[in-house]
Amino acid sequence: MLDFAEDFLDCDCQSNPHCGHPEEKFVSYLLDLRAQGLGPEAIVDVMSDDYLVYAYPGDVLSFLDDGIRTLEAAEQLADVDGQQEQAGAIRRRRKNLSG
C-alpha cells in the first residue's frame, strides 16, 4: 500500500487527495501499460504485482473502451471544427490505445 500511496497519492495540493491528481496519475499508469502492448488481463497482472491491487479484466477493458469512444468523439469534433491537425493527432492516439 505504501508504494501505491507514494506513486499516486503524493501531491502537494491543498485539497489532496481530492484534487484529482491521484486519478490522473492512475489513469496515466493504466494508459502507459496499454501503450506497452499489454491487454486487460496483463494489465491486471501488472497492477497486482506492483501494488497488490486487483481489478477484473472486464473492468479494464471497459475503461479502455470508454477511452476509445471519448477519443472518437473528440476526433469527430475536431474534424467538424476544421482542425485537421488536431484530428490526426487524436486519431493516432486512438489507434495506439486500441492496438
General description of the model:
By secondary structure, the chain is an all-alpha fold. The chain folds into two domains: 1-55, no CATH class; 56-99. Helix content is 75%, strand content 0%. The chain has helices at residues 2-9, 21-35, 40-51, 57-80, 84-98. Helix 3 packs across helix 4 (57-80) and helix 4 (57-80) packs antiparallel against helix 5 (84-98). The longest helix has 24 residues, at 57-80. The radius of gyration is 16 Å and the shape is globular. The two termini are 31 Å apart. The mean pLDDT is 92.
Key traits:
mainly alpha, globular, 5 helices, 99 residues, 2 domains
How much helical structure, as a percent, in the residues? over 70%
Pick out the low-confidence regions: none
Judging from the principal axes of the Cα atoms, what is the shape?
Answer: globular
SSE run: HHHHH
Distance between the termini: 31 Å
- Number of structural units classed as domains: 2
Count of helical regions: 5
Content of β-strand: under 5%
Total beta strands: 0
The value of Rg in angstroms is: 16 Å
Biggest sheet features = none
Average of the residue pLDDT scores = 92
Helix-and-strand structural type: mainly alpha
